[in-house]
Amino acid sequence: MKPKVISGGNFKDNRGNICFNNDFNTKKIKRIYTIENNSMAFVRAWQGHAIESRWFSVINGSFEIKLIKIDNWDKPTKKVKVFSSILNDKKLDTLYVPKGYVSSIQALEKQSKLLVMSDYLLGEVADEYRFDSNYFII
Question: For 15-41, how does the pLDDT look when each residue is reduced to its tens digit (9 = 90+)?
Fold first, then answer.
């Protein structure tokens, strides 16, 4: 599978604003958490999972999320193609990240908050991989 954005939307009237994502099926979700980077300059890179899938939605602000498909978890190819997506809080777009990818997450606005959903509980599988932020040539 490849990463994809599941498009959300919004509706505004005199009562307020509703952000929604009617096409996002949450049946596989077992765990949720949020990420708030300490500054806009900080890039949370590169962390991922060989088994776990994740979904990202922005609660506040905006984020650029870059993804790399890993070919070998022990020694990945350094020169790689990057999938990049910018998500914001204007509608509830959800970025699906299938297993086998590492991510780079950067806030594009102050006080940005990212909702992360996973199909595994914390500690259910030993499946966390981290690479130095300068490891990949993109």
Answer: 999 999 999 999 999 999 999 999 999
Domain that holds residue 73: 4-130
> Cα dihedral angle (39, 43, 45, 51), rounded to 10 degrees?
60
Give a yes or no: residue 46 inside a domain.
Answer: yes
| Cβ 107 vs Cβ 20: under 8 Å | no
pLDDT of residue 89: 97
Whether 41 is covered by a domain: the verdict is yes
Q: Is residue 85 part of a domain?
A: yes
Query: CA-CA distance, 93 to 41, in Å (whole number)?
Result: 23
pTM: 0.95
